[in-house]
Amino acid sequence: MTINIENEKQQDTTEVESSRRNFIFGSVAAAGLSVAPGVMLYQTANARSLAQPASAKVRWGMLVDTTKQVDWNKCVDACNNEHGLGNETHSRDEQKTQYIRVVEVKNKGTGYSMSLPVMCQHCEHAPCVDVCPTGASMKRPDGIVLVDRHRCIGCRYCMMACPYKARSFVHEVLTDQRETTPRGKGCVESCNMCVNRIDNGQLPACVEASQGAIIFGDLNDPQSDISKQLKTHGSRQIRADLKLNPGVHYQGI
Q1: Can you spell out the DSSP letters for 224-250?
Q2: Which of 61, 115, 192, 227 lies deepest, with the highest CB count within 10 Å?
Q3: In a 10 Å sphere around its CB, with 0-12 CB exposed, 13-18 middle and 19+ buried, how is residue 76 labelled?
Q4: How many other β-carbons are positioned within 10 Å of the β-carbon of residue 95?
Q5: Half-sphere exposure of residue 147, counting CA atoms within 13 Å on the CB side?
Q6: 145 phi and psi, to 5 degrees?
Q7: What digits encode the pLDDT tens for the residues 197-220?
Q8: What is the spatial distance between Cα 106 and Cα 65, in angstroms, rounded to a whole number?
Q9: Measured distance CA(19)–CA(223) in Å, rounded
């Protein structure tokens, strides 16, 4: 069975004028931009006590077992609650922010259907990072792909480059923000693998809500549960043909 998630191709932007980049960053610094009312990114960072900085020795990943009888919408609800999503008012549902969504897949030949959760796949070779003109889309050394809201200018190149349709654009003014997830109108955002929880030694919200159907761990550690499962049972990556090497693996697809 083939999973085909529509891919919107976007020509890679390879050069950005230094004067434009300096203007963008200088304007942000001068204005002291606050993406959420009263919340600065450095405040969020300081609110966490990190024992050590992110390291390339670790690569965080997820293994989703689609064969388990799980209500994936519980993972969506947990994600929305963790990040304060779902408070926007839109005329169209497709404009609402989704860090994780449930995709229904059907084999037209056999009639077999299934559902699976799809979020940012945290690719090793992330196209969203490659096309971003300001460096707002970035990848931590441990493989987590993030968006710096201070640098995001809302061009949405990353949304067009993502083959998983995993990014959302904030169209409306937001309220009831979580300090650990600063957001703002005019910015692109996506699943950050609950980096605020990971850095405090906790599991991502969707993993906790999955009833064991999603395993989280270090893909670089052969002794981790996720690595042992991958070695024993194997997995598939969505659109592996693109050679992006996502950090999210699936079983049963």
Answers
A1: SHHHHHHHHH--B-TTGGG----SEEE
A2: 61
A3: buried
A4: 14
A5: 31
A6: -90, 130
A7: 999 999 999 999 999 999 999 999
A8: 17
A9: 48
Is 18 part of any domain? no
Read off the DSSP letter of residue 95: G
Q: Give per-residue pLDDT as tens, 47-83.
A: 444 557 888 899 999 999 999 989 999 999 999 999 9
Q: Compute the C-alpha angle 227/228/231, nearest 5°.
A: 85
- Per the domain annotation, does 132 fall within a domain? yes
DSSP state of 178: B
- CATH number for position 155: 3.30.70.20
Residue type (1 letter), 249: H
Separation between Cα atoms, residue 209 and residue 235, nearest integer Å: 21
Cβ-Cβ contacts under 8 Å for 19 (sequence gap 6 or more)? none
Give the 3-state secondary structure of residue 82.
helix
Which residues lie closer than 8 Å to 130 by C-beta, 6 or more apart? 12, 161
Torsional class of 117: left (φ above 0), alpha (ψ -120 to 50), beta (otherwise)? beta
CA distances from 95 to 84, 171, 172, 208, 232 (A): 16, 8, 10, 27, 40
pLDDT over 60 (residue 229): yes
Q: Which amino acid, residue 2? A: T
Give the phi and the psi of residue 112 in degrees, each rounded to 5: -70, 135
Q: Using CA atoms in the order 170, 175, 181, 187, what is the torsion angle rounded to 10 degrees?
A: 20
Domain count for the chain, please give it: 1
For residue 233, what are its two tokens?
């049972």
Do residues 114 and 68 touch, judged by C-beta distance below 8 A? no
Name the token pair of 137.
Answer: 């889309």
Both tokens assigned to 217: 């761990």
- Residue 52 lies in domain: 26-57+70-212
Q: Considering the domain boundaries, does residue 123 fall inside one?
A: yes
